Amino acid sequence: MQVGVLGTGHYVPSKVVTNKDLEKIVDTTDEWIRTRTGIEERRFAEDDVTTSDMAFHAAEQALEDAGLDAADIELILVATVTPDTAFPSVACIIQDRLGAENAAAMDVGAACAGFMYAMITAKQFIETKAYKHVLVVGAEKLSPILNWEDRTTCVLLGDGAGAVVMSEVSEDKGILSFELGAKGAGGKDLFQNKQGYFEMNGREVFKFAVRQMPESTVNVVEKAGYAKEDVDFLVPHQANIRIMDAARERIGISRDKMAVTINKYGNNSSASIPMALSQSVKDGKIKDNDYIVLVGFGGGLTWGAVSMLWGR
Ligand code: UT7
């Protein structure tokens, strides 16, 4: 059985915070942020908007795009490191709001690779015929965990959510290969500190990422029996344009064949990949029968990649 994506959706808060805005509160420059990361602006959710609010909006869109009712969903997986509360989970909160009364629900925590972990978890349940339709969401409200005393991290992150509905698709479509991995020994380089803030040893994470992202990309392409030249579109985790370019250059594709949302939304952790995927589909950059690769890495350390033939 082939498992793929029936529908996509994404949501970003309306409040835009530019690099120029940050210059007023942090010792930084628009020039530094743009050239070192590729970020021009990001979205911050208002105080009364939660991760589950954004997850709900993205999920509603994905359901509509899939042509399904909430009652058709049998499992909800939400990848997040910024749940509204430890419990109830974001998955349970949106199960109630969507009216998905037939769905089991849980959150998945693998930081920026969380959406890859959640997608592959969904795939197992569908393949074993336990569940027909699974809603997979990546959602983050990272703005409250930014340390405004630390200019090396506070300029990087933004808020948002993305979602997909996963189900059985026709035999020539869907997920062809995947890779998931973790290296707990690297956890000390990217973590939530005792004050609750995002903390990172940027240079160490950068070194890890420029090696892991290209390697995982090539691994899933080889596992699927494809060649690098066959990749039509790459959807990388939006951590840093230089890291994304490293993955892209390894498979030899041009910038226009890579999803880039980091300029407008910054790094959205678990939400980055589904937001970039949904945006690319809506912009017509990913079309039926395209061979695409999704690839991410994050705190844990964790990583994951999926290759698939797009379409139902
Ligand atoms: O999804 C989560 C995973 N996170 C990531 O993938 C991030 C991975 N790491 C990175 O993307 C990069 O390491 C950063 C963008 C975080 C930093 O870029 P870098 O090129 O590695 O810079 P650096 O840390 O080597 O710092 C270079 C200089 C330093 O000044 P000195 O020591 O050379 O005088 C920093 O103090 O840049 C300075 N700097 C800044 N300057 C202006 C650091 N942050 C800033 C800032 N504005 N915001």
Task: Describe the secondary-structure layout.
Elements: E1 2-11, E2 16-18, H1 19-23, H2 30-37, E3 41-43, H3 51-66, E4 75-79, H4 90-98, E5 104-108, H5 114-127, E6 134-140, H6 151-154, E7 160-169, E8 174-182, E9 190-192, E10 198-200, H7 202-223, E11 233-236, H8 241-251, H9 262-265, H10 272-282, E12 291-298, E13 302-309
Parallel strand pairs: 4-5, 4-6, 11-12
Antiparallel strand pairs: 1-7, 2-3, 6-7, 8-13, 9-10, 12-13
Observed structural traits:
312 residues; alpha/beta; Peroxisomal Thiolase, Chain A, domain 1; 2 domains; 5-stranded mixed beta sheet; 4-stranded mixed beta sheet; 33% helix; 25% strand; binds oxa(dethia)-CoA
- Determine and state the CATH class of the largest domain: Alpha Beta
- Which regions are unreliable across 5 or more consecutive residues at pLDDT < 50? none
Percent in strands: 25-35%
Going by CATH, the homologous superfamily of the largest domain would be Thiolase/Chalcone synthase
CATH architecture of the largest domain: 3-Layer(aba) Sandwich
Structural class: alpha/beta
How confident is the prediction overall: mean pLDDT?
97
Instruction: Please state how the strands of the largest beta sheet are arranged side by side.
Output: 1-7-6-4-5
What is the count of structural domains?
2
Spell out the helices and strands N to C. EEHHEHEHEHEHEEEEHEHHHEE
